[in-house]
Amino acid sequence: MRRHSASLLLAIVLLVGCQLGQRARDEALLPALRMAAVGICEDAIRGGDDAASVAAEAFMNALRAESLDQPAITEGWVAVSAYAKLGISVRVASGEIGPAVAESLLERIKQFDIGIQKYFEKDTRP
């Protein structure tokens, strides 16, 4: 249930973050992304070997940094999202989760991807 709540919170924050400027992104979207990233990274670690753990840790460190490094985050996200999708597949194959839960977790990855894009989108309003 906690993971579903995090997905819903992220979706709501994305809607708000898309309409507001950088301050809203920093104060609402970024904390939601950081919270959702924890679960996604857990799935990533389940989906790989030591490389998955290293990628997840590097990604979380980049996302938690005071000054965000966009290339490090976006490149790290490519690896982490792939490992997370694999981790979800592993959990389904083992019977740990069913297809509906897997669908929800995959939706969280999709929403996180949108959030990262929106966070780094330039605010063009005056």
List the helices and strands and how they pair.
Layout: H1 2-19, H2 22-46, H3 50-64, H4 70-93, H5 99-120
How would you briefly describe this protein structure?
The radius of gyration is 14 Å and the shape is globular. It is an all-alpha fold. 83% of the residues lie in helices and 0% in strands.
Order of SSEs, N→C?
HHHHH
Poorly predicted runs of 5 or more residues: none
| Apparent shape | globular
Overall domain count: 1
| Count of alpha and pi helical runs | 5
Radius of gyration: 14 Å
Strand proportion, as a percent range, falls in under 5%
Secondary structure tally: strands: 0
State the major sheet: none
Helix content: over 70%
Terminal-residue CA separation: 41 Å
* Alpha-beta classification: mainly alpha
Average residue-wise pLDDT? 86
Notes on the protein architecture:
The chain has 126 residues and is mainly alpha-helical. It has one domain (2-120). Helix content is 83%, strand content 0%. It contains 5 helices and no strands. Helix 1 packs parallel to helix 5 (99-120) and helix 2 packs across helix 4 (70-93). It is globular, with a radius of gyration of 14 Å.
List keywords for this structure.
single chain; 126 residues; 5 helices
